[in-house]
Amino acid sequence: MRKKRIMHIGPEAMKIPVGFFCVREEWQRTSSQIGLFKSLDMAKNCVDHNPDYSVFDDTGKQIYTGKNVL
C-alpha cells in the first residue's frame, strides 16, 4: 500500500503571481488576505473599504494602506 503525500502549505507556497496585488493586514500573515487583484486601483478600492488592510505587490512591498498613502 502506498503512503499518501501530505503537502505543507506555508508562506513559501503562497507566492503572489507576478503583476498581482494582494490585500492583507500584514505581509507575513497570509491568512489575513482578503483579496488578490490584477488591478492596483481595484486593490486600493478594497483597502479603502477595509482600512485595517494594506496593498502589497508580488515582492511583499507595501504600496498602499488604509491608514495613509505610502
Fold and architecture overview:
The protein has 70 residues and is of the alpha+beta class. It has one domain. Helix content is 14%, strand content 20%. It contains one helix and four strands, in the order E-E-H-E-E. The protein has a four-stranded antiparallel beta sheet with strand order 2-1-3-4, covered by helices on one side. Strand 3 and strand 4 form a beta hairpin. The longest helix is centred in the middle third of the chain and has 10 residues. The chain is globular and about 25 Å long. About 13% of the residues have low confidence.
Please render the helix and strand layout as text.
Elements: E1 21-24, E2 35-37, H1 40-49, E3 54-56, E4 62-65
Antiparallel strand pairs: 1-2, 1-3, 3-4
Strand order of the largest sheet: 2-1-3-4
Largest sheet: 4 strands, antiparallel
Envelope shape = globular
The residue-averaged pLDDT reads: 82
Helix percentage range = 10-25%
The count of β-strands is 4
Order of helices and strands: EEHEE
Which strand-content bin applies to the residues? 15-25%
Q: What Rg is obtained from the alpha carbons, in whole angstroms?
A: 14 Å
Q: Decide which structural class fits the backbone.
A: alpha+beta
Count of helical stretches: 1
